[in-house]
Protein backbone atom coordinates (compact mmCIF):
# COMPACT_ATOMS: atom_id res chain seq x y z
CA UNK A 1 0.00 0.00 0.00
CA UNK A 2 1.22 3.54 -0.63
CA UNK A 3 0.85 6.25 1.98
CA UNK A 4 1.03 10.03 1.77
CA UNK A 5 2.56 10.89 5.13
CA UNK A 6 4.68 7.88 6.06
CA UNK A 7 7.24 5.60 4.45
CA UNK A 8 7.23 1.87 5.15
CA UNK A 9 10.26 -0.32 4.50
CA UNK A 10 10.97 -3.92 5.38
CA UNK A 11 14.32 -5.57 5.97
CA UNK A 12 14.50 -9.19 7.01
CA UNK A 13 12.15 -9.56 9.99
CA UNK A 14 12.05 -5.86 10.86
CA UNK A 15 9.95 -3.01 9.49
CA UNK A 16 10.74 0.70 9.51
CA UNK A 17 7.89 3.22 9.56
CA UNK A 18 9.10 6.80 8.97
CA UNK A 19 6.90 9.83 9.58
CA UNK A 20 7.25 11.99 6.50
CA UNK A 21 5.66 15.44 6.79
CA UNK A 22 8.86 17.50 6.84
CA UNK A 23 7.01 20.74 6.01
CA UNK A 24 5.17 20.48 9.35
CA UNK A 25 7.89 18.83 11.47
CA UNK A 26 5.85 15.61 11.28
CA UNK A 27 2.85 17.16 13.03
CA UNK A 28 0.33 14.41 13.64
CA UNK A 29 -2.81 15.13 11.67
CA UNK A 30 -5.60 12.62 11.15
CA UNK A 31 -4.02 11.30 7.97
CA UNK A 32 -0.77 10.52 9.80
CA UNK A 33 -2.71 8.77 12.55
CA UNK A 34 -4.77 6.70 10.15
CA UNK A 35 -1.75 5.76 8.06
CA UNK A 36 0.50 4.85 11.00
CA UNK A 37 -2.26 2.75 12.54
CA UNK A 38 -3.14 1.02 9.24
CA UNK A 39 0.51 0.32 8.37
CA UNK A 40 1.51 -0.96 11.79
CA UNK A 41 -1.60 -3.13 12.11
CA UNK A 42 -0.81 -4.69 8.72
CA UNK A 43 2.77 -5.33 9.85
CA UNK A 44 1.44 -6.72 13.13
CA UNK A 45 -0.59 -9.31 11.22
CA UNK A 46 2.44 -10.34 9.15
CA UNK A 47 4.17 -13.39 10.69
CA UNK A 48 7.37 -12.48 8.84
CA UNK A 49 7.74 -9.25 10.84
CA UNK A 50 9.13 -9.55 14.37
CA UNK A 51 9.70 -5.91 15.33
CA UNK A 52 8.58 -2.49 14.08
CA UNK A 53 10.69 0.70 14.31
CA UNK A 54 8.91 4.05 14.25
CA UNK A 55 10.98 7.12 13.50
CA UNK A 56 10.79 10.68 12.16
CA UNK A 57 13.44 12.96 10.74
CA UNK A 58 16.65 14.14 12.33
CA UNK A 59 15.00 17.50 13.13
CA UNK A 60 11.71 16.17 14.44
CA UNK A 61 10.31 12.84 15.51
CA UNK A 62 7.00 14.73 15.66
CA UNK A 63 6.33 18.29 16.87
CA UNK A 64 2.94 17.30 18.25
CA UNK A 65 -0.60 16.94 17.10
CA UNK A 66 -1.40 19.18 14.14
CA UNK A 67 -2.35 22.47 15.79
CA UNK A 68 -3.73 23.98 12.58
CA UNK A 69 -6.03 21.02 12.03
CA UNK A 70 -7.32 21.12 15.61
CA UNK A 71 -7.66 24.89 15.97
CA UNK A 72 -11.21 25.33 14.55
CA UNK A 73 -12.75 22.20 16.11
CA UNK A 74 -15.60 22.31 18.58
CA UNK A 75 -16.19 20.07 21.55
CA UNK A 76 -18.80 18.17 19.53
CA UNK A 77 -16.33 17.63 16.65
CA UNK A 78 -13.81 16.16 19.06
CA UNK A 79 -16.28 14.08 21.03
CA UNK A 80 -18.29 12.64 18.16
CA UNK A 81 -15.23 11.77 16.09
CA UNK A 82 -13.51 10.41 19.22
CA UNK A 83 -10.48 12.44 18.16
CA UNK A 84 -7.18 10.54 18.49
CA UNK A 85 -8.65 7.38 20.01
CA UNK A 86 -7.28 5.39 17.04
CA UNK A 87 -3.77 6.02 18.43
CA UNK A 88 -4.62 3.58 21.22
CA UNK A 89 -4.40 0.82 18.61
CA UNK A 90 -0.67 1.47 18.28
CA UNK A 91 -0.26 0.58 21.94
CA UNK A 92 -2.34 -2.56 21.41
CA UNK A 93 -0.07 -4.09 18.75
CA UNK A 94 1.31 -7.49 19.73
CA UNK A 95 4.55 -7.10 17.77
CA UNK A 96 7.23 -5.25 19.76
CA UNK A 97 7.83 -1.65 18.66
CA UNK A 98 10.84 0.66 18.94
CA UNK A 99 10.61 4.47 18.81
CA UNK A 100 13.78 6.06 17.41
CA UNK A 101 13.52 9.69 18.47
CA UNK A 102 15.66 12.49 17.09
CA UNK A 103 14.85 16.18 17.47
CA UNK A 104 11.46 17.34 18.68
CA UNK A 105 9.13 14.86 20.38
CA UNK A 106 6.59 17.31 21.73
CA UNK A 107 2.97 16.89 22.76
CA UNK A 108 1.51 14.14 20.61
CA UNK A 109 5.05 13.36 19.42
CA UNK A 110 6.17 12.54 22.95
CA UNK A 111 2.96 10.57 23.45
CA UNK A 112 3.54 8.64 20.24
CA UNK A 113 7.06 7.71 21.38
CA UNK A 114 5.66 6.58 24.74
CA UNK A 115 3.14 4.33 22.95
CA UNK A 116 6.10 2.30 21.68
CA UNK A 117 7.74 -0.47 23.71
CA UNK A 118 11.41 0.55 23.54
CA UNK A 119 12.30 4.23 23.37
CA UNK A 120 15.74 5.13 21.98
CA UNK A 121 16.76 8.77 21.70
CA UNK A 122 19.46 10.63 19.85
CA UNK A 123 21.48 13.23 21.74
CA UNK A 124 19.46 15.92 19.92
CA UNK A 125 16.08 14.70 21.16
CA UNK A 126 13.76 17.11 22.98
CA UNK A 127 10.79 15.78 24.92
CA UNK A 128 7.87 17.63 26.40
CA UNK A 129 4.13 18.03 26.84
CA UNK A 130 3.77 21.75 26.02
CA UNK A 131 0.02 21.59 25.32
CA UNK A 132 -0.69 23.93 28.23
CA UNK A 133 0.93 26.76 26.27
CA UNK A 134 -1.79 26.27 23.62
CA UNK A 135 -4.58 26.21 26.18
CA UNK A 136 -5.08 22.46 26.02
CA UNK A 137 -3.80 19.34 27.79
CA UNK A 138 -2.28 16.08 26.49
CA UNK A 139 -4.82 13.91 24.66
CA UNK A 140 -2.98 10.74 23.60
CA UNK A 141 -2.14 9.53 27.10
CA UNK A 142 0.73 11.90 27.92
CA UNK A 143 -0.47 12.88 31.38
CA UNK A 144 -0.68 9.17 32.28
CA UNK A 145 2.29 7.58 30.51
CA UNK A 146 4.73 10.40 31.26
CA UNK A 147 3.79 10.25 34.93
CA UNK A 148 4.32 6.49 35.03
CA UNK A 149 7.65 6.87 33.20
CA UNK A 150 9.24 9.78 35.08
CA UNK A 151 7.13 10.17 38.23
CA UNK A 152 4.73 12.85 39.38
CA UNK A 153 7.26 15.57 40.17
CA UNK A 154 8.74 15.89 36.70
CA UNK A 155 5.52 15.03 34.81
CA UNK A 156 3.60 17.68 36.72
CA UNK A 157 6.25 20.32 36.03
CA UNK A 158 6.40 19.48 32.33
CA UNK A 159 2.61 19.40 31.91
CA UNK A 160 2.01 22.59 33.91
CA UNK A 161 4.84 24.75 32.55
CA UNK A 162 5.46 23.28 29.10
CA UNK A 163 9.18 23.01 29.87
CA UNK A 164 11.00 20.51 27.65
CA UNK A 165 13.63 17.91 28.57
CA UNK A 166 16.77 17.21 26.59
CA UNK A 167 17.88 13.65 25.89
CA UNK A 168 20.21 13.43 28.89
CA UNK A 169 17.46 14.49 31.29
CA UNK A 170 15.01 12.11 29.63
CA UNK A 171 17.44 9.24 30.13
CA UNK A 172 18.13 10.16 33.76
CA UNK A 173 14.38 10.35 34.37
CA UNK A 174 13.79 6.91 32.88
CA UNK A 175 11.76 8.02 29.85
CA UNK A 176 14.21 6.56 27.33
CA UNK A 177 16.22 3.38 27.53
CA UNK A 178 19.34 4.81 25.89
CA UNK A 179 20.78 7.91 24.20
CA UNK A 180 23.00 7.51 21.14
CA UNK A 181 24.67 10.03 18.78
CA UNK A 182 22.20 11.32 16.18
CA UNK A 183 24.19 9.83 13.31
CA UNK A 184 23.91 6.36 14.85
CA UNK A 185 20.27 6.44 15.94
CA UNK A 186 18.61 4.64 13.07
CA UNK A 187 21.29 1.96 12.76
CA UNK A 188 21.10 1.37 16.50
CA UNK A 189 17.29 1.20 16.47
CA UNK A 190 17.32 -1.25 13.56
CA UNK A 191 19.95 -3.32 15.32
CA UNK A 192 17.84 -3.48 18.48
CA UNK A 193 14.80 -4.35 16.34
CA UNK A 194 16.80 -7.07 14.57
CA UNK A 195 17.76 -8.56 17.92
CA UNK A 196 14.13 -8.57 19.10
CA UNK A 197 12.94 -9.97 15.76
CA UNK A 198 15.44 -12.80 16.08
CA UNK A 199 13.85 -14.03 19.29
CA UNK A 200 10.92 -16.39 19.44
CA UNK A 201 7.99 -14.31 18.13
CA UNK A 202 5.36 -15.69 20.52
CA UNK A 203 7.71 -15.47 23.50
CA UNK A 204 8.62 -11.86 22.63
CA UNK A 205 4.89 -11.09 22.47
CA UNK A 206 4.43 -12.64 25.90
CA UNK A 207 7.37 -10.70 27.36
CA UNK A 208 5.85 -7.48 26.00
CA UNK A 209 2.43 -8.40 27.36
CA UNK A 210 3.89 -9.17 30.78
CA UNK A 211 5.79 -5.87 31.07
CA UNK A 212 2.79 -3.89 29.84
CA UNK A 213 0.58 -5.62 32.40
CA UNK A 214 2.55 -3.92 35.17
CA UNK A 215 0.94 -0.63 34.12
CA UNK A 216 -2.57 -2.01 34.47
CA UNK A 217 -2.68 -4.05 37.64
CA UNK A 218 -1.44 -4.73 41.18
CA UNK A 219 1.93 -6.36 41.87
CA UNK A 220 0.32 -9.62 43.05
CA UNK A 221 -1.94 -9.84 39.98
CA UNK A 222 0.93 -8.89 37.69
CA UNK A 223 3.18 -11.59 39.13
CA UNK A 224 0.35 -14.11 38.79
CA UNK A 225 -0.13 -13.04 35.15
CA UNK A 226 3.61 -13.39 34.52
CA UNK A 227 3.64 -16.85 36.14
CA UNK A 228 0.83 -18.06 33.87
CA UNK A 229 2.71 -16.83 30.79
CA UNK A 230 5.95 -18.30 32.13
CA UNK A 231 4.27 -21.69 32.40
CA UNK A 232 2.77 -21.22 28.93
CA UNK A 233 6.14 -20.69 27.24
CA UNK A 234 6.85 -24.35 27.98
CA UNK A 235 4.21 -25.10 25.32
CA UNK A 236 6.22 -23.13 22.75
CA UNK A 237 8.73 -25.18 20.74
CA UNK A 238 11.20 -22.31 20.94
CA UNK A 239 11.62 -22.98 24.67
CA UNK A 240 13.05 -26.42 23.84
CA UNK A 241 15.20 -24.92 21.09
CA UNK A 242 16.53 -22.11 23.30
CA UNK A 243 17.43 -24.34 26.23
CA UNK A 244 18.77 -27.16 24.02
CA UNK A 245 20.97 -24.71 22.14
CA UNK A 246 22.36 -23.47 25.46
CA UNK A 247 23.13 -27.01 26.59
CA UNK A 248 24.73 -27.84 23.23
CA UNK A 249 26.74 -24.57 23.24
CA UNK A 250 25.29 -23.34 19.95
CA UNK A 251 23.20 -20.37 18.78
CA UNK A 252 19.46 -21.08 18.94
CA UNK A 253 17.36 -20.95 15.79
CA UNK A 254 13.90 -19.91 16.80
CA UNK A 255 10.97 -20.99 14.69
CA UNK A 256 9.02 -17.79 15.06
CA UNK A 257 5.99 -19.81 16.09
C1 LIG B 1 1.11 22.09 13.03
C2 LIG B 1 3.35 22.59 13.10
C3 LIG B 1 3.47 22.01 14.37
C4 LIG B 1 2.29 21.43 14.96
C5 LIG B 1 5.40 22.77 13.80
N1 LIG B 1 4.55 23.05 12.79
N2 LIG B 1 4.75 22.14 14.79
N3 LIG B 1 2.18 22.62 12.45
N4 LIG B 1 1.15 21.50 14.25
N5 LIG B 1 2.32 20.82 16.15
C6 LIG B 1 4.86 23.73 11.53
C7 LIG B 1 5.06 25.22 11.74
O1 LIG B 1 3.82 25.89 11.77
C8 LIG B 1 5.87 25.59 10.53
O2 LIG B 1 5.02 25.66 9.40
C9 LIG B 1 6.77 24.37 10.33
O3 LIG B 1 6.12 23.29 11.03
C10 LIG B 1 8.14 24.55 10.95
O4 LIG B 1 7.99 24.92 12.30
P1 LIG B 1 8.67 26.23 12.93
O5 LIG B 1 7.90 26.62 14.11
O6 LIG B 1 8.88 27.26 11.88
O7 LIG B 1 10.09 25.63 13.35
P2 LIG B 1 11.02 26.09 14.56
O8 LIG B 1 11.09 27.59 14.62
O9 LIG B 1 12.30 25.35 14.38
O10 LIG B 1 10.29 25.60 15.89
C11 LIG B 1 10.12 24.24 16.14
C12 LIG B 1 9.13 24.01 17.32
C13 LIG B 1 7.81 24.76 16.99
C14 LIG B 1 9.72 24.56 18.61
C15 LIG B 1 8.90 22.50 17.44
O11 LIG B 1 7.38 24.41 15.67
C16 LIG B 1 6.69 24.44 17.95
O12 LIG B 1 6.68 24.91 19.06
N6 LIG B 1 5.75 23.62 17.51
C17 LIG B 1 4.59 23.27 18.31
C18 LIG B 1 4.95 22.32 19.41
C19 LIG B 1 3.72 21.95 20.24
O13 LIG B 1 3.14 22.85 20.88
N7 LIG B 1 3.33 20.70 20.23
C20 LIG B 1 2.13 20.26 20.94
C21 LIG B 1 0.96 20.31 20.00
S1 LIG B 1 -0.56 19.98 20.83
P3 LIG B 1 5.06 26.94 8.41
O14 LIG B 1 3.93 26.66 7.45
O15 LIG B 1 4.89 28.15 9.26
O16 LIG B 1 6.42 26.85 7.78
C22 LIG B 1 -0.60 18.34 21.00
C23 LIG B 1 -1.83 17.81 21.68
C24 LIG B 1 -1.88 16.33 21.70
O17 LIG B 1 0.24 17.62 20.59
C25 LIG B 1 -3.18 15.83 22.13
C26 LIG B 1 -4.34 16.54 21.53
C27 LIG B 1 -5.62 15.78 21.60
Overview of the molecule:
- The protein is globular, with a radius of gyration of 19 Å.
- The chain folds into two domains: 6-197, 2-enoyl-CoA Hydratase, Chain A, domain 1; 200-248, Orthogonal Bundle (Lyase 2-enoyl-coa Hydratase, Chain  A, domain 2), CATH 1.10.12.
- The chain starts with 5 loop residues before the first strand and ends in a 10-residue tail after the last helix.
- α1 links the parallel β2 and β3 (51-55).
- Helix content is 45%, strand content 16%.
- The protein has helices spanning 30-45, 67-70, 75-80, 88-91, 108-115, 142-150, 152-161, 167-173, 185-197, 201-213, 219-232, 237-247; strands spanning 6-11, 14-19, 51-55, 60-62, 97-101, 104-106, 118-122, 126-128, 165-166, 178-180.
- Bound molecules: hexanoyl-coenzyme A.
- Hexanoyl-coenzyme A binds at residues 24-25, 27, 63-68, 84, 104, 106-108, 130-131, 134, 138-140.
- Residues 24-25, 27, 63-68, 84, 104, 106-108, 130-131, 134, 138-140 line the site of hexanoyl-coenzyme A.
Write the topology of this structure.
Layout: E1 6-11, E2 14-19, H1 30-45, E3 51-55, E4 60-62, H2 67-70, H3 75-80, H4 88-91, E5 97-101, E6 104-106, H5 108-115, E7 118-122, E8 126-128, H6 142-150, H7 152-161, E9 165-166, H8 167-173, E10 178-180, H9 185-197, H10 201-213, H11 219-232, H12 237-247
Parallel strand pairs: 2-3, 3-5, 4-6, 5-7, 6-8, 7-10
Antiparallel strand pairs: 1-2, 8-9
Helix pairs in contact: 6-7, 10-11
Bound molecules: hexanoyl-coenzyme A.
What fraction strand? 15-25%
What ligands does this structure carry?
A: hexanoyl-coenzyme A
For this structure, the CATH topology of the largest domain is 2-enoyl-CoA Hydratase, Chain A, domain 1
DSSP summary, beta strand count: 10
**Which sequence of strands runs across the widest sheet?**
1-2-3-5-7-10
The structural class is alpha/beta
Low-confidence stretches: none
**How would you describe the shape?**
globular
Give the second-level CATH assignment, the architecture of the largest domain. Alpha-Beta Complex
The CATH class label of the largest domain is: Alpha Beta
Count of helical stretches? 12
Give helix and strand order, one letter per element, not per position: EEHEEHHHEEHEEHHEHEHHHH
Mean pLDDT score: 97
Cα distance, first to last residue?
26 Å
For the largest beta-sheet, the strand count, sense and barrel status come to: 6 strands, mixed
Radius of gyration equals 19 Å
